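BUG: 3D viewer hangs when loading the predicted structure for this chain

Environment: internal workstation, default settings.
Expected: structure renders.
Actual: progress bar stalls at 90%.

Input used:
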Amino acid sequence: MNAASALAQVRESESVIATSEDFAFARKLSRVFKSVATKVEPGVVHVTQYRMVQRTDWFGRPIGAAMLQQTGLGSGAIIDAAGIVITNNHVIDRGESFKVRLSNGDELEATLIGRDPQTDLAVLQIKDPPSDLPTLSFADSDALEVGEWVVAVGSPFGLDSSVTQGIVSARGRSVTPRETGRSYEDYIQTDAAINPGNSGGPLLNLEGKIVGINTAIASRTGGYDGIGFAIPSNTARLVVENIRKHGRVLRGWLGVGLENSEEINGQSRVLVGSVQMGSPAAAAGLREGDVITRFQGVAMDEARMRNAIATLPAGSVVNIEVERGGVPVKLTAMLADRSANNTTFIEALGVEVVPVDERLSEELGFQGVMIWDTTADGRAANRFQKNDVIVAVDGDPVKNERDFAKAIEAADFQRGVRFNVLRPVQVRQGNRVETTFDRGRIDIRD
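Structure tokens produced before the viewer hung:
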């Protein structure tokens, strides 16, 4: 080996040896994470649900008296000194009583104020909270950027005050958590380790403020595989405000059919496929064929815009920028309450339906009802999809939600019930994405 080669090897080895400046930087970053953990851990709680469980023998006969047993656990964040805790709906779902354990080990009873299955969020109230209860505050999740450091805190596998760190991997993800079976849009994706039991715990920025509520993992094994999801803090804040004020979420309703349109300069756009008569959209002057370029000043795709409308309370005034025949137009609409506008819940099937508007009915050549949402444990779960149009039950045509409710009331699920369904399918036609409907049949039998 000549002198030049030896010198090059020495310089290369020196370049990979950490310097005192490198160690100083690492220690500073470590102090930041330690500071976040120290600051937020007292505001994170372990949530346990209980319900009465009846033991039975091999033949299904009850044995002894029903007993109160632990039936679920997760995490939560204290967001108000009055004892208000935010967690996931699937953490408390079906629970009859609840307890939260503070970081100091104190275990306190809590009551359920309200829950919102659609966003998988719930709000608990600690009974007789201590006067010095620590709290966490929300940050603006819209300001969160991909690549930003975040910290997840919770109780994975029942282990209290577990802290993991990572970055924001992506925003606006749409996933279907296996814990709920429901589809959600606009998740924050992170590589901060999230495991079973972390559900309901906070995802925080380096200032120690909540940017999301951890809710799901993408994993083949059920454990951490590097992909976790959190509900944005702006959504969580609106849900909490609605539940505390009304006991439920008053979802905004605009009254339009939306489809993804071609992106321009990397900006998402949404095509208005239909406008329901008498809706806030009609009153605002929205027209079929308009292309929405910005909603509340933000460019969105179809899924994110639906979510943005739904999480705004009724009465909210929204700004909508559209392109109409190549000309920009600015409109203002006042959202109505979705629950007061044609949504009907069919408990026996576990679906929420809306009537098919007149324009779509003419286009399809059928009357019927459209699936708005399904419950995770209902008969329709994993069978029907959002926006499916049900046109007949056991061969009898369905004209509206009243007909549908009567048909389900008379249905015999032991023998089996047949549904004729039109399912929307998106097809690209040149630069546009158009929606067509495939005909099919769904049979449900207990």
